[in-house]
Design a protein that fits this description.
Elements: H1 2-9, H2 13-24, H3 36-44, E1 47-48, E2 51-52, H4 63-75, E3 86-91, E4 97-102, E5 107-109, E6 113-115, H5 119-124, H6 134-142, E7 150-156, E8 181-183, H7 188-199, E9 208-212, H8 214-217, E10 227-234, H9 248-265, H10 269-272, E11 273-279, H11 281-288, E12 324-326, H12 340-353
Parallel strand pairs: 6-12
Antiparallel strand pairs: 1-2, 3-4, 4-5, 7-10, 7-11, 8-9, 9-10
Helix pairs in contact: 1-2, 2-3, 2-7
Length: 356
């Protein structure tokens, strides 16, 4: 229980609430939810360039990381087809994976298939259900994929100026502009209240906001004087109460709530906005294939971790389909842009490949 851990070590409510955001990030959970302490551990474990618990910014945006991995792969002879949708996994007579079929009808044959799609897409959409054990299918269907995240990307014509730390006269970024800025985090009770509203099917009236300004570190992302602002917000339910849909009106109403909150901390922010892109949980699912909009392909709760991720008996990257491996966020140890699931899955696949 994260609340107990933070109360034991800290006295300051703003500090506790700011730390608590990493315990609920991407999770439909409150700082008072049992098991939330693990999610915080998950986000501070490991190190970056020798600094324990540190996070880093990828120059050029997160896509640059994908491009770096792609370049390393192609250098070793890999062929990458990023614009080819996979229709289903090809199976042999004995039910083993033999490659994939693309949406355009092309068949790509291989001895092994590794999927970094979610467990739901991999096993419920790309594999015929009759080829899988019924209890396995049922467990995959029961994975909790609820997500509280709405991502809002914003273009602004000037740097936000916060009441707590006004901008310099030259308008240049200050140290706090180059960090993660947490708003509506004066106390853990605020986070709990925001969660409670979403749990009842209503977007939070005072949402948790993590505001980053990537262009403060990476000026090439925006024209001179302008900036891009990334808003990672919670809590928004995947399914709204009363059967209401996340239509344009609902999406804009929630974004307006977020912008009103930011305006309270940084007057003039709303007037500086040139454009915005709102991605609710259904949008994140539709565009990126994230089940329920969940950035981890499934909740990082204690019942969905370690030997139960994605389901019991299949935490070792192999699947009921011989030659088919799961290597994405839905596999052990979960998401977080650390590559552990992919590395581990690759080692298992290489071990098996040597016996083919």
């Amino acid at each position: 229980l994260l609340g107990q851990i933070l109360d034991h070590w800290f006295e300051s409510e703003p500090l506790k609430a700011t730390l608590a955001t990493d315990a609920v990030i991407g999770a439909m959970a409150s700082p008072h939810t049992p098991g939330s302490g693990y999610v915080l551990l998950h986000h501070v474990m490991g190190e970056l360039e020798g600094r324990r618990g540190a996070w880093g910014y990828v120059a050029g945006g997160m896509g640059a990381l994908s491009q770096a991995i792609a370049h390393a792969a192609t250098t070793q002879g890999a062929h990458i087809f990023a614009d080819k949708a996979v229709c289903h996994v090809l199976l042999g007579r004995d039910g083993e994976a033999q490659g994939v079929a693309l949406l355009d009808g092309t068949e790509v044959r291989s001895k092994l298939v590794l999927s970094n799609a979610s467990p739901q897409i991999t096993f419920l959409e790309l594999i015929p259900q009759e080829q899988l054990p019924k209890d396995f299918v049922q467990r995959i269907q029961q994975v909790d994929t609820r997500s509280p995240v709405t991502k809002i990307n914003v273009a602004v014509d000037r740097l936000p100026s916060f009441l707590a730390a006004p901008n310099a006269r030259d308008g240049q970024p200050l140290p706090h502009h180059q960090c993660s800025i947490h708003l509506n985090c004066e106390g853990t009770q605020l986070l709990h209240q925001a969660f409670t509203e979403a749990a009842q099917g209503h977007p939070s009236s005072r949402p948790m906001i993590e505001l980053c300004i990537p262009s403060a570190l990476d000026p090439g992302l925006a024209p001179p004087g302008c900036h891009v602002v990334s808003l990672f917000t919670q809590y928004t339910p995947s399914v709204l109460a009363g059967g209401q849909s996340w239509d344009e009106q609902a999406r804009n109403a929630y974004a307006d709530t977020v912008f009103d909150c930011i305006e309270d901390y940084a007057p003039g922010f709303k007037a500086s906005v040139i454009g915005r892109d709102i991605l609710t949980p259904p949008d994140l699912e539709r565009i990126f294939g994230l089940p329920g909009g969940n950035i981890f392909h499934g909740g990082m709760s204690l019942d969905q971790l370690y030997f139960t991720r994605p389901v019991p008996s299949y935490s070792g990257y192999r699947s009921p389909i011989p030659g088919l491996y799961l290597c994405g966020s839905g596999a052990h140890p979960g998401g977080g842009v650390m590559g552990a699931a992919g590395r581990n899955a690759a080692q298992v696949a290489i071990k098996d490949f040597r016996h083919l």
